C-alpha cells in the first residue's frame, strides 16, 4: 500500500502529461474537422489513407529515416572517441573541464544553437572570415540552406547523448582488463575491436536510440539550416499544426511516424538485447 501511495504522483503525472494528450491526438487523427472549430465533423480514416495515396509523405519519411541514420552514424563516430578520452585518458580537472564543454549545449536554447550555426555556415559568416584571415587565397564556404548544414546542426545538438551513454559504459570497464589484454600481446586496435567496443556496446546502442528517435521527427534544424532542402517529414507535420491548421492530418502523420519508429525498435530489439 505504501508503494502504491509513493507511485501515485508519478503515475498521475504520466496520465495527465502523456496519456491524456496522446489520447486526444489519437481522437483528432480520426476526425474530419476539429470539434472545437464549430464546423461539422465526423469520424474517418481518410487522414491515414492520405499517407498512402499521396506519395510525397512516404518519400519524405524515407528522407527523414536516411537523415536519422546519417546523424546517428556521425554522432557515434564523433562521440565514442570523445567518451573514451573522457573515461580512460583524462583525469582530474581536465576531465571535468572537457565534460563541461560536452554538456554545455544542454544549457542553451535550441534556437540559439541553430541560429549560431546559421551565422557560422552562411557566406561571409564566421567560418568564411576565419579561413580568409588565415589562408593566402579567398574561400567562400556557403553551406547554409543545404543538406550538410542540417547534418551539422543535428549532430551538434545530439552528439552529447552518445558521449554521455558511452562514457557510462566505458567507465564500467575495469582498467585491469585492458592492461591484461595489452600484457598478453594484444595491439591497441585488437583491444579496441575485441574488448572495448563489445563491452561498451550497451552505451553505444542506448545513445544511438536516443539520437535516432528524435532526429526522425526533427523540424527546427531542417527548417532553419536547410531552407528549401530542409523539407522532411517532421517539417510537414509541423506545417499541418502551425501553418495549415490541419490538426487531423498532422496527428495521423505523427502516429504513422510513431508506428515506424516502434517497428524499427522492435526489429532491432534482438541486437539491443544481445548488447545489454
From TrEMBL:
Key word Cell membrane present: yes
Compartment annotation: Cell membrane
Predominant localisation class: membrane
Keywords: Cell membrane, Membrane, Transmembrane, Transmembrane helix, Transport
Record field: transmembrane: 6-31, 43-61, 67-86, 98-120, 144-170, 191-216, 247-268
Top-rank taxon: Bacteria
Any one of the GO CC terms: plasma membrane
Domain ABC transmembrane type-1, residue spans: 61-268
Similarity section: Belongs to the binding-protein-dependent transport system permease family. CysTW subfamily.
Protein name as it appears in the record: Peptide ABC transporter permease
Species for this entry: Pleomorphomonas carboxyditropha
Taxon lineage: Bacteria, Pseudomonadati, Pseudomonadota, Alphaproteobacteria, Hyphomicrobiales
